[in-house]
Amino acid sequence: MAMVLLAHHLxxxxxxxxxxxxxxxxxxxxxxxxxxxxxxxxxLDLSHHQSxxxxxxxxxxxxxxxxxxxxxxxxxxxxxxxxxxxAFVIGELARLGTRVxxxxxxxxxxxxxxAVAAERPEGRPIGRYVDEVADPVGEPLDVYRRTADQLDRVxxxxxxxxxxxxxxxxxx
Length: 172
Description:
Elements: H1 2-12, E1 29-30, H2 33-41, E2 50-51, H3 56-61, E3 65-67, H4 70-79, E4 87-89, H5 90-100, H6 109-117, H7 141-171
Parallel strand pairs: 3-4
Antiparallel strand pairs: 1-2
C-alpha cells in the first residue's frame, strides 16, 4: 500500500518517480485481497502487485529506502550497510525530513538523506516505535483502512519533501 500511495502522491506533484516495493521476508505473491480492496476504495490499483524479496541490488540502487518497521530497516542494512544514510522507517523520514525541510531543487536526494540521517540521535537505534506502521496482514478490512490512512498521511509528507528536487530533475 505504501508503494502505490507514495507513487500516487508524487505523481500528483508532477513527479513520475520509480517507486518499488520489496520485503524482508522470503515469500512472493500478489497483494492481499484487503490491500487491493482498500486501495481500490481510494481509486488506486494494486491488483497487479507481486511481492518480492529485497536484495542488495535494490537497496544499492535506491536513493531512499523505506521500511515500515525498525526491523525492516535492519534487514535493509544487512543487505547493504552503506544504506544507513538513506534507509529510514517510513515515519522517521517524514518526521526528520520535516525538521530538515524539503529537498532543495538541484540538490541530489541522496545528499538530502544524509542531512536527514544526521538528525538521528547519536548512538541510538534507527527510528522510533511511533515511526512504525504495523503490517495488517491477517487483520480485518477496517484495520487495513486504518493502516492505509496512516500510510496516506506519511506518504503525503514524504512526497512534499521529495517533490521539489525530483520536479527540478524532470524539468532539466
